[in-house]
């Protein structure tokens, strides 16, 4: 089940709000411009799946989203605990950053934890299979795939170069819960 915990940015211990119903999560995230949806999934897709097969399985909703939002590039990221770059990638994604475009992820399998730093709040979103999240351009955030990652996600970009981050240099992410804390 997906979950949203909202913290004061200077109080990372106790959330001020905890939500686990889809409609409540959508409403709360919608207030800050974050799109959150649940799509039907193909249960046979697991980490290590062929990217072409993943994209083919979700061609219709991906195409709809591309037409609606103008996304130019689509790819698949697949991560498990055997991935040779998992530690390097985890550390990179755990650093607070922002993008000049929306960061859109659809979790085909597994899970990950997005944390969004907006004004004086931090929105921590546990995304699981079937969840689509779109973090608006310019929103500071970080992502935790966990110590033992297991996920497949479709990524959509406006920028043909794909994932380009501008790191804030702020260590705020070090103070907030990690994926394991939500499991």
TrEMBL record:
GO molecular function terms attached to this record: acireductone dioxygenase (Ni2+-requiring) activity; acireductone dioxygenase [iron(II)-requiring] activity; iron ion binding; nickel cation binding
Alphabetical list of InterPro entries matching this protein: ARD (IPR004313), ARD_bac (IPR023956), RmlC-like_jellyroll (IPR014710), RmlC_Cupin_sf (IPR011051)
Cofactor note: Binds 1 nickel ion per monomer. Binds 1 Fe(2+) cation per monomer.
Keywords: Amino-acid biosynthesis, Dioxygenase, Iron, Metal-binding, Methionine biosynthesis, Nickel, Oxidoreductase
Site annotation May play a role in transmitting local conformational changes: residues: 102
The protein's Enzyme Commission number: 1.13.11.54, 1.13.11.53
Pathway(s) the chain acts in: Amino-acid biosynthesis; L-methionine biosynthesis via salvage pathway; L-methionine from S-methyl-5-thio-alpha-D-ribose 1-phosphate: step 5/6
UniProt site positions, description: May play a role in metal incorporation in vivo: 96
Classification via Gene3D superfamilies: Jelly Rolls
Reaction(s) catalysed (UniProt annotation): 1,2-dihydroxy-5-(methylsulfanyl)pent-1-en-3-one + O2 = 3-(methylsulfanyl)propanoate + CO + formate + 2 H(+); 1,2-dihydroxy-5-(methylsulfanyl)pent-1-en-3-one + O2 = 4-methylsulfanyl-2-oxobutanoate + formate + 2 H(+)
Listed SUPFAM superfamilies: RmlC-like cupins (SSF51182)
GO biological process: L-methionine salvage from methylthioadenosine; L-methionine salvage from S-adenosylmethionine
Pfam families per UniProt: ARD (PF03079)
Positions of Ni(2+) binding: 97, 99, 103, 141
Residues reported in the UniProt entry to bind Fe(2+): 97, 99, 103, 141
Family to which the UniProt record says this protein belongs: Belongs to the acireductone dioxygenase (ARD) family.
HAMAP family: Salvage_MtnD
Function: Catalyzes 2 different reactions between oxygene and the acireductone 1,2-dihydroxy-3-keto-5-methylthiopentene (DHK-MTPene) depending upon the metal bound in the active site. Fe-containing acireductone dioxygenase (Fe-ARD) produces formate and 2-keto-4-methylthiobutyrate (KMTB), the alpha-ketoacid precursor of methionine in the methionine recycle pathway. Ni-containing acireductone dioxygenase (Ni-ARD) produces methylthiopropionate, carbon monoxide and formate, and does not lie on the methionine recycle pathway.
Name of protein: Acireductone dioxygenase
Originating organism: Thiopseudomonas alkaliphila
């Amino acid at each position: 089940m997906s979950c949203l915990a909202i913290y004061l940015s200077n109080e990372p211990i106790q959330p001020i709000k905890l939500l686990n119903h889809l409609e409540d999560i959508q409403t709360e995230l919608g207030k800050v411009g974050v799109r959150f949806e649940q799509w039907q999934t193909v249960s046979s897709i697991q980490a290590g799946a062929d990217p072409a097969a993943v994209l083919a399985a979700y061609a219709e909703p991906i195409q709809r989203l591309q037409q609606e939002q103008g996304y130019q590039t689509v790819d698949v990221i697949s991560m498990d605990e055997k991935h040779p770059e998992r530690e390097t990638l985890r550390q990179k994604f755990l650093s607070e950053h922002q993008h000049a475009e929306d960061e859109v992820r659809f979790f085909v399998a597994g899970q990950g934890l997005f944390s969004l730093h907006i004004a004086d709040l931090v929105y921590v979103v546990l995304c699981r299979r079937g969840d689509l999240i779109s973090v608006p351009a310019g929103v500071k955030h970080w992502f935790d795939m966990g110590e033992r990652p297991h996920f497949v996600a479709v990524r959509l970009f406006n920028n043909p170069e794909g994932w380009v981050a501008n790191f804030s240099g702020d260590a705020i992410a070090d103070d907030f819960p990690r994926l394991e804390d939500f499991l």
